[in-house]
Amino acid sequence: MDHHFSPTVDSLQALARQVTQTSIEPMAAQVDAQCMWPAHSMAALAQAGLMGLHVPTALGGHGQGLQTLAAITETIGRACPSSALCFGMHCVGTAVIAAKATGYQQQHYLRAIAQGRHITTLALSESGSGAHFFLPATRLAADGDDFIVDGTKQFVTNGSHADSYVISTAAQQDGAAAPGGDFSCLVLDADAPGLQWQEPWAGFGMRGNSSRGLRLEGTRVPRRNLLGEQGDQVWYVFEVIAPFFLMAMAGTYLGVAQSALEATEAHLRMRRYAHSGESLADIESLQVRFAAMWVALEKSRGLLREAAARGDAGHPDALPYLLACKADAADTAVLLANEAMTLCGGMAYRENSRVAQMLRDARASHVMSPTTDLLKLWTGRSLLGVPLL
Ligand SMILES: Cc1cc2nc3c(=O)[nH]c(=O)nc-3n(C[C@H](O)[C@H](O)[C@H](O)COP(=O)(O)OP(=O)(O)OC[C@H]3O[C@@H](n4cnc5c(N)ncnc54)[C@H](O)[C@@H]3O)c2cc1C
C-alpha cells in the first residue's frame, strides 16, 4: 500500500506539529515532574480546531479516521507522551460516540467536541477483569426513562478533567451484573450524581494523564445517553474502540521511539573523547546499534501505517495488522528507550533525564489494554482463523 498521507492528513499533522512545538513541548518536562494533567495541551489542540478529528464534517468536525489519529498522536507523543495519551483517549471516546450517534448525541456531544468545548474519554477498565477490558462488571439497571449504574472503573485517563466518560456496563441479572451477558456503552456526563473520584494518579511513567479510579454509586443516566442499542458493546469493542485505541496508542509510542532515536543520534554526534578526538558516532559497534534502532522504528512505522490504511479502507485483512501494530510499537518504544539509556551514557542515567522519562513512559505501553500479551495472542488467532475470544 502507499504510505504517503493525503494532503488533508498532511495538513492536519502539520497543524498538530505547530501546536506541539509552540504549546505542548515547552511544558512536557513539567507535566512529567509534577504529574500535571496537560490542560494547556488540550486547550491548544482545541484552539487549533483539532478536538473534533473524528466528528463528521456535517457537525463541524474533520471526519477523519485511523491514519490521521496515528499521525497526530505520533507527533504529540514525540514531545509529550502524556498529552498524546490524553488527546488520544479523547479521540477514541469521540469515535465511540460518533459511531452510532443519535440526533441528541450529535447536537449535545459531537458539535461541542468539534467546537473544542467538550473533552470526552474512555472508562472501560475495572479491577475485577483487569486486562480483559471487554468484561465489565459495572451494573446497568433500567429505571423508567433512566438507567442506574453501579460499579468502579480504574485507570480512567483524563479522570476528573473530562466533560463526559464513555463507560461499559453489563445488564443486571438477579441483582448482579452478568459479565459476558448483555453489554452496553453509555456516555456519562461529568456532573451526573454519584460520581466519586479516587486518589490522583502518580504513575511510573505517563505521569500527566490523570489516570484515576471512578466509583459509580446509584448513578442515574438518562436513556438518551445509551450508545447504539442495548447489548451493542461487543460491536463497539471490536469495531470502534479497538481500532481507534490501537491507533492512538501505537502512534503515541511510535512518537516515544522516535524521540529516543533522536536523543541517541544527538548524543552520538555530540559526545567526543578528549584522549582520541573521536566521537561516539565514529565507533563502529555504536553505528551498528544505532542502525538497528532506526530499522526497528521504520519497521514499526511501516506496520502502523499499513494497519491504519487497511483499517480506513475497510480492508478484509485489516485485523491482524491492527492488532499487531500496537504490540509492535510497544516493543519498539521500550527497545529504543532502553538502547537510548545505554548509548546516551551517564547523562541519561541522571534522575528524571529526558531519556529516563522516555523509558518510563514507554513501559506503560505493555500494560495498557489491549495489552501486548493479549494482542500477540489475538494476532496469532486472527491469522490462524481461531476466534479471538
Ligand atoms: C497509563 C495508563 C493509562 C490507562 N488509561 C486507561 C483509560 O483511559 N481507560 C481505561 O479503561 N483503562 C485505562 N488503563 C487501564 C489499562 O487499559 C489496563 O486495563 C490495565 O493497565 C490493566 O491492569 P491490571 O493490573 O488490571 O492488569 P492484569 O489484568 O492484572 O494483567 C497483568 C498482566 O497479565 C497479562 N495477562 C492477563 N491475562 C492474560 C492472558 N490470558 N494471556 C496472557 N497474558 C495475560 C496482561 O497482559 C498484563 O501484562 C490505563 C492504564 C495505564 C497504565
User: How many domains would you count in the coordinates?
Assistant: 3
CATH architecture of the largest domain: Up-down Bundle
Bound molecules: flavin-adenine dinucleotide
Beta-strand fraction estimate: 5-15%
Span from first to last CA? 30 Å
Low-pLDDT stretches are none
Radius of gyration: 21 Å
The whole-number mean of residue pLDDT values reads: 95
Form type? globular
Q: Assign a percent range to the helix content.
A: 40-55%
> Mind telling me the CATH superfamily name of the largest domain?
Butyryl-CoA Dehydrogenase, subunit A, domain 3
Structural class: alpha+beta
Domain Acyl-CoA oxidase/dehydrogenase middle: 122-217
EC number: 1.-.-.-
Keywords: FAD, Flavoprotein, Oxidoreductase
Family: Belongs to the acyl-CoA dehydrogenase family.
